Amino acid sequence: MRVALWWLRRDLRLRDNQALSAALAAAEHVVPVFVLDPALWRSPYVGEQRLAFLLGGLRALDADLHARGSALTVRQGDPAEVLAQLLAETGAEAIFAEADHSPYARARDARVAATLPLHLTAGVTAHAPGTVLKRDGTPYVIYTPFSRTWRALPLPSARDVLPAPERILTPEGIASEPLPELPGAALFPPGEVEAQRRLADFAQARICNYANARNVLAEDGTSQLSPYLRFGMLSARQAVVAAREARAATRCESARGADTWLNELIWREFYIHVLHHFPNARRESFRENLRAIAWANDMEDFAAWQAGRTGYPVVDAGMRQLAATGWMHNRARMITASFLTKDLLIDWRWGERHFMQHLLDGDLASNNGGWQWAAGTGTDAVPYFRIFNPVLQGEKFDPDGRYVRRWVPELADVPTKHLHQPWTMPEAMQHEAGCIIGEDYPAPIVDHAWARERTLAAYRQARGATAQT
DNA sequence: TTTTGAGTTGTTCGA
DNA sequence: GTCGAACAACTCAAA
């Protein structure tokens, strides 16, 4: 074959890219293509920060391609039309792309494949959806047995990680549209080079203490690789290899940190598999007996949660970190999600949408899975009566208050003893701390003990209502 | 088919 | 302050 298209979607990397590798093996010349699909712009699940990260990633990739004698072709429009046009323009005989398992991507690819020579390869996950099944051939809905089977399958080793090609021959003179300009988030420079740097940094040392450090809100104890995994600036396979290498290496005192991180990677795959097998979970609760919850859905409460003005410091810190950086600490995601669904009794789908609009790493499968886990409506979800106490969570995971003080500066001078429940400050102390509750910082918008009872009753009722029908 | 053991990340209450 | 039990029974996975 003389020419093939390499259609990029969420695999913005040259290293360990099976679609690129297949294209290079099949054709002498390869045209890297990204299609700016207006359908993605119009989605209420897309936000400007993630879009900026994607566009930055495309610029970085274009630079990496130039260093190898190639260039990225960008076109705007419906993918089926754009690709048909490009096949005609370049004389390409095939399109290679990494399979994406989200419902929209599957429908799109089916539409393209109906008329064009599209070849899909693996790569979004280390084990493709449909390959991790129970003995009777049905999919898992409980994480632990899924993870056991996942680990028992042949796992990639360092030898399987494909090196970046040294040269990519691309015909010249193919017209490309300019990428829109959007200001990006400073904390997460997009691109494969940065992803590799971060992985090396994390896997070299921080991974050893990951099991403990990942829960400390004020520290960089997590890998902070999620935006890169989201857009495939790092392959899932390479991440798995790094986790397994760290587990086997002697540089850590114990394998626990690396093993815990591997588990997180498997959780990511679990949710991709679940959504693949149960696409309806995208729109409704996975658990049928919890679809009848009478959500309170108070608009003012929702607005306060979005703005980080609930009066619960650790909740507000998380929400403000998200708005400011496009990222939120994992522990804070659980706390804010529990607060929205269990304390405010607001439909998890409202929270899911808000997270998707702001997260750089916003991914349908992980985000939906996480929200349904927090709401207790999902696969292997938290029991509905397990309700986070935002004060205790703050005291436990931000004991010295550094996280809260960083993101909620009006609380900077509140004594640590009162930091996670500032409304307990006597009036004189509020003056001294320069923080009058109800003026400088909101009083709690809801009483936790009362809200807990309300939610237990609402969930109990939903379960009862289903049992009767 | 039936049985058995197990299930990410908590909180509250009472001794 | 610390500890264990209750929360609510339920569904899933595998033998």
Q: What is the CATH third-level topology name of the largest domain?
A: DNA Cyclobutane Dipyrimidine Photolyase, subunit A, domain 3
Major sheet summary line: 5 strands, parallel
Topology pattern, helix = H, strand = E: EHEHHEHEHEHHHHHHHHHHHHHHHH
Shape: globular
Layout: helices, strands, pairs:
Layout: E1 3-8, H1 18-26, E2 29-36, H2 38-42, H3 48-66, E3 73-76, H4 79-90, E4 95-98, H5 103-115, E5 118-121, H6 143-152, H7 192-204, H8 210-213, H9 226-230, H10 236-248, H11 256-277, H12 299-307, H13 313-325, H14 330-343, H15 348-358, H16 364-375, H17 390-397, H18 402-407, H19 416-419, H20 427-432, H21 448-468
Parallel strand pairs: 1-2, 1-4, 2-3, 4-5
Helix pairs in contact: 6-11, 10-11, 11-16, 13-14, 14-16, 15-16
This protein binds a DNA duplex (15 and 15 nucleotides) through helix 6, helix 14 and helix 21.
Outline of the structure:
By secondary structure, this protein is mainly α. The protein is built from 21 helices and 5 strands.
